[in-house]
Amino acid sequence: MPMLDIKNLTLEIDNGTSRVKALDKVDLTVNSGEIRALVGESGSGKSLIVSAISGALPPQFHITADRMSWNGESLLSMSTEQRREIMRRDIAVVFQNPITAMDPSATLGEQLEESIPDELVKGKWFWQRRQSRRKSAISTVHKVGIKHHRHYLNAYPHQIPTDIGQKFMIAMALISQPKLLIADDPTRGMETTTKTQVLKLLTRLNQTRSLSILFISHDLLAISSMAHTMTVLYCGQSVESGRMKMLRKRPLHPYTKALLDSAPSFRKDLPPKSILPNMDGIIPSLKHVPIGCRLGPRCPRAQKDCVITPAVRRIHDHTYSCHFPLHMEKL
Ligand SMILES: Nc1ncnc2c1ncn2[C@@H]1O[C@H](COP(=O)(O)OP(=O)(O)OP(=O)(O)O)[C@@H](O)[C@H]1O
Ligand code: SF4
Ligand SMILES: [Mg+2]
């Protein structure tokens, strides 16, 4: 049974005059000990999935799902307290814009120490517990590669550079020793050495502590070397999902192929709104979503039948939604 199990997640955004379907029947699972990559162009809905899982949704967002569960328990039907407890103890999220997710009125040290669950703090007396919190905070910031901990732990969010903010949010997420880490583009804009350091740390935590990770990134080269499985999202729909090795070797969906083919050609992260080298056009706006397969107008394999929405098909643990998939003869 997957730890995180999402089936047919739909998220509609109400903008007052109309509703758009920003996520449409998305399926996503994360198994225990797995690193799953979630990829797709800018605007495909990756961060919306993170918001839906975290439960931090503005009132204009409306969610439905056939299943959205954590270790078999439905996240949608549990009480707010239960959900908060899971987000406090089991699932940690690194949101996409780290600085805006911080409390501007507290120092980094205060925020980090506050995030340590009571049960992980050692000592009986308050000074022992204060020392224990301080020690964990220092060792965690070192782990994520922040040097000069004295300086940064005493700083306020507006006093720190962006890359320290990014690393700090990873520290905030890891300090509660979660079972699942959801990291939304945590290394965007980082210079290569720092990025490698963060990716190595996450891989090590996955291997040594069995930390499961849902990793969102535009950096397909990095992600494809560390993730075990991958889900590809296009325009609010999960179009293909399976083991990373299989997807790299024989992607069935034309969009997955275009994404993967674009990877070796960029040395840095694929910038937002960039055009895929092997696919015309850009991702449509949610107000002008094509009927049938949403990739239709951009797809080199599109035919008449593609005006009908393709169903999800499954071959073992590989799923895809396309009427005319690639590589079928080799399966
Ligand atoms: N608060 C909001 N109100 C209206 N539309 C929104 C809101 N948040 C996101 N959207 C729309 O939902 C779609 C998906 O957005 P999302 O931020 O999830 O994309 P993403 O895949 O995370 O992109 P990126 O890679 O740039 O982070 C976009 O079309 C976006 O404009
Ligand atoms: S269903 Fe048609 S348009 Fe959609 S990805 Fe497959 S071939 Fe392309
Ligand atoms: Mg995003």
Automatic annotation (TrEMBL):
It is found in: Cell inner membrane. The keyword Acyltransferase does not apply. Gene3D superfamilies: P-loop containing nucleotide triphosphate hydrolases. Keywords: ATP-binding, Cell inner membrane, Cell membrane, Membrane, Nucleotide-binding, Transport. Residues 4-260 form the ABC transporter domain. GO terms for cellular component: plasma membrane. It is a peripheral membrane protein. SUPFAM superfamilies: P-loop containing nucleoside triphosphate hydrolases. CDD domains: ABC_NikE_OppD_transporters. GO terms for molecular function: ATP binding; ATP hydrolysis activity. GO terms for biological process: peptide transport. The keyword Cell membrane applies. Belongs to the ABC transporter superfamily. This is ATP-binding cassette domain-containing protein. It comes from Salinimonas sediminis.
